[in-house]
Amino acid sequence: MSVTLSYQAIPPTSSFYKRLQQEQTLNILLVSLFLQGNSIFHFFDINSSSTVDSIRSINNDLERVIKKHHEIFGSELEASLAVAEYRSELMLTCRAYPGIENRRYSLGAFPEIEEGLSCELSRKKFVDVDSIVERIMFGDRRFAPAMLIEGEESLGLISREIVSEGASILRQIDLDNMVEVDANNWDEYLQWMDFYLEADKKGEELLIAVI
């Protein structure tokens, strides 16, 4: 079965980030809709070319989430206000952090890349290689643990410290030595590396889901 790591950059200095860790309705919307569309910031995209089906799909996704967690969202009015707040925070974040809406990457060849990184770090005599690769690829914590609902899905987080550590390590990798990465997956590895380095440059953290 094919497995993919889906990453989304998020600015830890944003009001959106802070509210996601304090308001359960916003966090539920984030987690539940994380894999819908090209990015969490594109979920509500509607323009003149949008079809009735695409608009209906957005509404259906929202209704599904609210119905499942109706005891948290409350009345229809309260649920509508929560959705409006979530949408407003997405828009405000995009305005405050230009380009964040496109800062997403899906890594499909991660088993091979994970092996390549492990072997290269071992060759460079890094200590506790498995732990290093685990946290820079899969994260070092759960996002907003206080908001988690028992038995429900959640998102992983690569914290600012680990993004910085990972970027530093990736800069030390000798690409010519990573023979474990097949030529067909080189572009994917390089794109993922560029995505990671850019996150470090912009001071971002990375949300992650395994799909």
Overall structural class, as computed from helix and strand content, comes to alpha+beta
Residue-averaged pLDDT, rounded?
91
Number of helical regions? 9
Unreliably modeled segments: none
Sequence of secondary-structure elements: EHHHHHEHHEEHHE
Largest sheet: 5 strands, antiparallel
Considering DSSP H and I runs of 4 or more, what fraction of the residues is helical?
40-55%
Radius of gyration: 19 Å
Query: What percent of residues are in strands?
Result: 5-15%
> Distance N terminus to C terminus?
10 Å
In total, the number of strands is: 5
Strand order of the largest sheet: 2-1-5-4-3
Principal-axes shape call: elongated
Q: Mind explaining what this structure looks like?
A:
By secondary structure, the chain is of the alpha+beta class. 53% of the residues lie in helices and 10% in strands. The protein has nine helices and five strands; from the N terminus they run E-H-H-H-H-H-E-H-H-E-E-H-H-E. It has a five-stranded antiparallel β-sheet with strand order 2-1-5-4-3. The protein is elongated. The protein starts with a strand and ends with a strand. The mean pLDDT is 91.
